[in-house]
Automatic annotation (TrEMBL):
<dbReference type="GO" id="GO:0006729">
    <property type="term" value="P:tetrahydrobiopterin biosynthetic process"/>
</dbReference>
<protein>
    <recommendedName>
        <fullName>4a-hydroxytetrahydrobiopterin dehydratase</fullName>
        <ecNumber>4.2.1.96</ecNumber>
    </recommendedName>
</protein>
<keyword id="KW-0456">Lyase</keyword>
<dbReference type="InterPro" id="IPR036428">
    <property type="entry name" value="PCD_sf"/>
</dbReference>
<dbReference type="InterPro" id="IPR001533">
    <property type="entry name" value="Pterin_deHydtase"/>
</dbReference>
<dbReference type="GO" id="GO:0008124">
    <property type="term" value="F:4-alpha-hydroxytetrahydrobiopterin dehydratase activity"/>
</dbReference>
<comment type="similarity">
    <text>Belongs to the pterin-4-alpha-carbinolamine dehydratase family.</text>
</comment>
<dbReference type="Pfam" id="PF01329">
    <property type="entry name" value="Pterin_4a"/>
</dbReference>
Amino acid sequence: MSNWTESNNRLSQTFKFKNFIEAFGFMSQVAIIAEKMDHHPNWSNVYNQVTIELTTHDAGNTVTDKDRTLAKAIDDLLA
């Protein structure tokens, strides 16, 4: 995985884009993948930055393979 940080039982990364439209488009792509996986991120967006935190709620809010799989799918979007 690229620049994901594992801390406090979360995988997190902040992505920076050229502008709000690119950031929002990225979020839309992630939303489709997350929905198909039935694994939804905690995230926020401010202008051209998207911060994503992944944790598995039904596993006691810990990082699991579900989080790592979603993180890789997110990385693959940007590859």
